[in-house]
Write a structure and sequence with these properties.
Largest sheet: 5 strands, antiparallel
Strand content: 25-35%
Radius of gyration: 21 Å
CATH class of the largest domain: Alpha Beta
Bound molecules: uridine-diphosphate-2(N-acetylglucosaminyl) butyric acid
Shape: globular
Number of domains: 3
Number of helices: 8
Order of helices and strands: EEHEEEEEHHEEEEEHHEEHEEHEEEHE
Low-confidence stretches: none
Helix content: 25-40%
């Protein structure tokens, strides 16, 4: 167990906000996490606790006056396998994209479309990360957790996680209660590419690649190229990926907007609901590439807010509020941050 006091969080949030934590505790095994929890109980320590992953979805508004927990559990083990599929248990502290790469190198397929998403494996199961027509929930069989109050181990089946778009039970009812220790993914041996996302099909056509020529490694490369083209590298320009979720609205709301903007992009959700890309609305409001102090809207993808250098959490928050107000005024829609404000 690694314990630090008055620790800088600069290396623990991709926005590059210079906040500090009273304590940072990094554990290497389930036993170490349980020892930490039992130690707190013995000392009746009820100080605030926040579990983080790669810090790619966090905005620190202030220093954190409590303990930040971070998993360094990094083992990868096959749990079940047959001719068609296999179930692999992956430590919560493994960097997500290293896991995607590892799976493809070993000939296990499914995760290609989720290549290059920042963050760690534990957060994939909390956040239900998604991109290019795939979501983590499509591959998660079970989630192994530790109860942060009692130290007890508890498994959640996929259904118990209550997954939806960028959502799970760990973000709502059970927020802050469990730490993910391992995620069990079910992957395939046979490659069945998911090419449902429009931008992906056009990228393949542009490169002159047909489905027969496609391999998991080529698909991963294509996804990486698309992302590198549109999204800023947090090592170069601080950011947390999509800052807002795409709002799911009533069909009548979509029809109202489409009367004024006939080419509004949208995705069908169900008979009554449609998803409208928040990035499109932000761009329509004229925010793309604009800055407010040291916080800005990325010039190539308006859903991403960036730290131009030295921004505080409050600078980013001010930009967020100004954008929300303009989107509300123009479209009568409230866009909600995907990023967690701490
Ligand atoms: N659009 C604009 N202007 C912009 C950005 C987007 O008009 O500045 C339009 C695009 O033209 C397109 C539509 O909005 O018609 C969708 O854009 P894009 O494909 O870039 O995806 P997105 O909806 O903006 C979502 C995810 C991304 C994920 C992509 C691809 C959310 C909150 N974001 O973004 O996830 O990579 O789809 O699947 O659902 C992340 O969560 O950090 C993230 C990057």
């Amino acid at each position: 167990m690694i314990i630090r006091e008055d620790c800088s969080l600069l290396g623990h949030n991709t926005f590059g906000i210079a906040a500090k934590a009273r304590h940072l505790v990094e554990y290497q095994s389930i036993q170490e996490l349980q020892d930490f929890i039992h130690g707190r109980a013995e000392q009746s320590d009820n100080s605030p606790l926040l579990h983080i992953g790669g810090g790619s979805n966090l905005l620190f508004l202030n220093d954190y006056e409590g303990t930040i927990l971070h998993s360094l559990i990094n083992d990868i083990n096959i749990k079940e396998e047959d001719e068609e599929t296999l179930v692999v248990s992956v430590g919560a502290g493994v960097v997500w994209d290293n896991w995607v790469d590892y799976s493809i190198v070993h000939g296990w397929t499914g995760l290609e479309n989720l290549s290059l998403i920042p963050g760690e494996v534990g957060a994939s199961a909390v956040q239900n990360i998604g991109a290019y027509g795939s979501e983590a929930k499509d591959f998660i069989k079970e989630v192994e957790t530790v109860d942060l109050q009692t130290g007890e181990l508890r498994m959640f089946t996929n259904a118990e996680c209550q997954y939806a778009y960028r959502h799970s039970i760990f973000k709502s009812e059970l927020r802050g209660r469990y730490a993910v220790t391992h995620v069990l993914y079910r992957l395939n041996r046979r490659f069945r590419p998911n090419l449902n996302y429009g931008a992906l099909r056009s990228a393949l056509a542009e490169k002159g690649i047909n489905e027969e020529q496609l391999t998991p490694a080529i698909l991963r490369r294509i996804i990486i190229d698309i992302r590198e083209n549109k999204l800023p590298d947090p090592k170069v320009l601080g950011n947390a990926g999509s800052f807002f979720t795409n709002p799911i609205v009533e069909r009548s709301t979509y029809e109202r907007i489409a009367r004024d903007y006939p080419s509004v992009p949208h995705y069908e959700v169900d008979t009554n609901h449609v998803k409208i890309p928040a990035g499109w609305m932000i761009e329509q409001c004229g925010w793309k590439g604009k800055a407010l102090g040291p916080a800005a809207v990325y010039e190539r993808q308006a859903l991403v807010l960036v730290n131009l250098g030295g921004a505080t959490g409050h600078d980013i928050e001010a930009l967020c509020k100004a954008i929300q107000a303009d989107v509300r005024k123009r479209f009568q829609i409230d866009i909600v941050p995907e990023v967690n404000f701490i």
